[in-house]
Amino acid sequence: MAGLLGSVFLLVLQAYAAPPEFIQMWPSTPTSGPGSLGNETVSPSLVPPPGTSKRTPHSIIIGVRKGGTRALLEMLDIHPGVAAAATEVHFFDWDENYAKGLEWYRRLMPYSYPYQITIEKTPGYFTSPLAPARIHAMNSSIRLLLILRDPTERVISDYTQVYFNRLENHKPVQAIEDVLVRNGGLNTRYKAIQRSLYDVHVKNWLLHFPLDQIHIVDGDTLIRDPLPELQRVERFLELPPRIVASNFYFNQTKGFYCIRSDGRERCLHESKGRPHPPVNSSVLQQLHSYFRQHNRNFYRLVGRTFDWH
Ligand SMILES: *[C@@H]1O[C@H](CO)[C@@H](O)[C@H](O)[C@H]1NC(C)=O
Ligand SMILES: *[C@@H]1O[C@H](CO)[C@@H](O)[C@H](O)[C@H]1NC(C)=O
Ligand SMILES: *[C@@H]1O[C@H](CO)[C@@H](O)[C@H](O)[C@H]1NC(C)=O
Ligand SMILES: *[C@@H]1O[C@H](CO)[C@@H](O)[C@H](O)[C@H]1NC(C)=O
Fold first, then answer.
1. What digits encode the pLDDT tens for the residues 153-198?
2. Which of 98, 153, 236, 260 could make a disulfide contact with 215, Cβ separation 3.0–4.6 Å?
């Protein structure tokens, strides 16, 4: 919750980018900072900026897990016309009272000005069988953002995240070959491999949404050269072009781009861009050949090719 409130607060700090009438209505030096905010109703500094409201999102980053969803959302948040949600909600995976849930979902969205669009990200949606129909029921004209990487890289990244989470929680870990290989062959039932079958998952979305409502961001390109990918997203969301080259600087230590916006500099969390474990080359080859046909199917379904193995 503190994270959510913190981001509401940060949103307020972004008000400089808003039309002048909003700036005057909002104090430039709030009395408390992110982290110290614990309760939406008690702190006067948390009174929503006049003229803002909470709405269901206009766009959702639906996945894929480990595709670069956090980087994409943080980079889009540079845009003054974007209000980014701070929490992942997994709302459309649930089987609860829909109307009640929708109200709760809306409350988790950031306060936004009428000229802003709200964006949330929940990487699990892409592989959820329930999400497409439910999101469609909420807003059939919503614009979906899907960020993908080479499916083999994604599997290794998925494994790496689980590996570090388990280490932190003092749980036993397995070597990558032990989860990827079963009885001498590729363990295609491994969840991380299943999640990389982009053709299987996108088919499910295309049953509910036309292709022109789904914009695919090339996650490998976004990391190497963020601006052109973000400009494509601006056009897809019909936002005026506001993200510029000076919003990014390369951090040599991290080996990644960091963000410069609103006079602040920020890099992605340390857990992003962890080095991957070395993987046995014959297992890598097996992954590449397993995904090859699935990738081709995917290219055909979305009418676009990617630079994947
Ligand atoms: C938040 O504020 C309300 C109203 O003042 C109060 O009833 C509630 O206990 C507070 N919650 C927390 C977590 O401080
Ligand atoms: C549905 O999404 C579209 C596209 O982002 C947006 O223009 C529209 O306002 C949304 N409708 C609602 C009710 O939020
Ligand atoms: C660059 O990355 C390093 C390592 O993550 C970090 O400690 C440092 O603060 C970053 N520098 C800048 C200018 O972002
Ligand atoms: C890779 O794994 C195979 C069995 O899965 C094994 O025969 C081979 O020696 C391994 N290669 C290396 C370089 O470790």
1. 999 999 999 999 999 999 999 999 999 999 989 999 999 999 999 9
2. 236
Omega within 30 of 0 (cis) for the link into 64: yes
Residue whose CB lies within 8 A of the most ligand 4 atoms, among 183, 279, 280, for a mutation test: 280
Give 80's pLDDT tier (boundaries 50, 70, 90).
very high
**What is d(CA 70, CA 204) in angstroms, rounded to the nearest whole number?**
23
- Provide the domain count of the chain: 2
Same domain assignment for residues 64 and 148: yes
**Please, are residues 267 and 256 in contact by the beta-carbon 8 Å criterion?**
yes
Give domain status of residue 309, yes or no.
no
Question: Stretch 269-285: mean pLDDT, rounded?
Answer: 82
pLDDT at 125 over 60: yes
Check if 171 is active-site.
Answer: no
- The whole domain housing 57 covers 52-302
250 and 289 part of one domain? yes
Total number of residues shown for the chain: 309
- Separation of CA 9 and ligand 3 centre (Å): 24
| Annotated binding-site positions for 3'-phosphoadenylyl sulfate | 66-70, 149, 157, 257, 272-276
Give the pTM. Answer: 0.82
pLDDT of residue 101: 80
**Please, which residues have CB within 8 angstroms of residue 299's CB and are 6 or more apart in sequence?**
305, 306
Among protein residues, the one with the nearest Cα to ligand 2's atom 4 is: 142
Long-range CB contact pairs, 291-295, < 8 A, 24+ = 291/151, 291/152, 291/196, 291/197, 294/151, 294/196, 294/197, 294/198, 294/199, 294/200, 295/151, 295/198, 295/199
